[in-house]
Amino acid sequence: MPERPPDTLRQKLVSLANESLSKSDPYGWFDRLYSQAEGDTSQVPWAKLTTHPYLQDWLEKFPPQGNNRPALIIGCGLGDDAETLAKVGYKVTAFDVSPTAIAWCKERFPNSSVDYLVADAFALEPSWREAFDFVFECRTIQALPLNVRSIIIEAIASTAAPGGTLLVISRIRDTEDEPDNGPPWAVSNQEFAQFQQLGFQETRRDLFEDSDRAVTEVRLEMRKLNN
Ligand SMILES: C[S@@+](CC[C@H](N)C(=O)[O-])C[C@H]1O[C@@H](n2cnc3c(N)ncnc32)[C@H](O)[C@@H]1O
Questions:
Q1: Which domain covers residue 220, as residue numbers?
Q2: Is residue 1 situated within a structural domain?
């Protein structure tokens, strides 16, 4: 979610999100935000236009063997992380619920090997079940409200193949109390623990403190245990 968007952009995001949430629609606002940006990436608060730095750092420290193995990018936004994972050799499928975001990815990366798709994490293709050796989720769980959190976590978990790796980048909170305001709504330890209940073993956890923003972020690497 936004690193430190200008107040007006933040206000717009909150107002779009609140309107959706008041209609019990937890994610309809994303496409409206992308669409109202009218091709101007500065109007997408989370857009970095480059690899997320914690993904880049992970790739440098622990270079994976892509070897054309299938990878899935959850809520891929404008596509930079998907492109990076394709460059390290994965056969990447990247999806987002926003048709505008997916059209934007295709426009930004016309010669990409990434398969960009419009899809809803809450209604995934049955054929994606346990189909991916590498699953990457960056800032989507935190962008969805707490009342759908266990559903999104279960959906993400379902896509990793036995023995596969799941890498999550997210804000984390140090209490189980509900966060006051969002989006984003930082994820709690108990919420993350659901991945273990779903058959994952945590293999690495790195915390990143940002005292300026009073935010802690986590990079969680997990391995799906064999059935
Ligand atoms: C905060 S943005 C992060 C985008 C990207 N992962 C990044 O880090 O730049 C969250 C993304 O999740 C997408 N999203 C939200 N709900 C979704 C859903 N149900 N299925 C698929 N994508 C979803 C949004 O459209 C948005 O692109």
A1: 49-224
A2: no
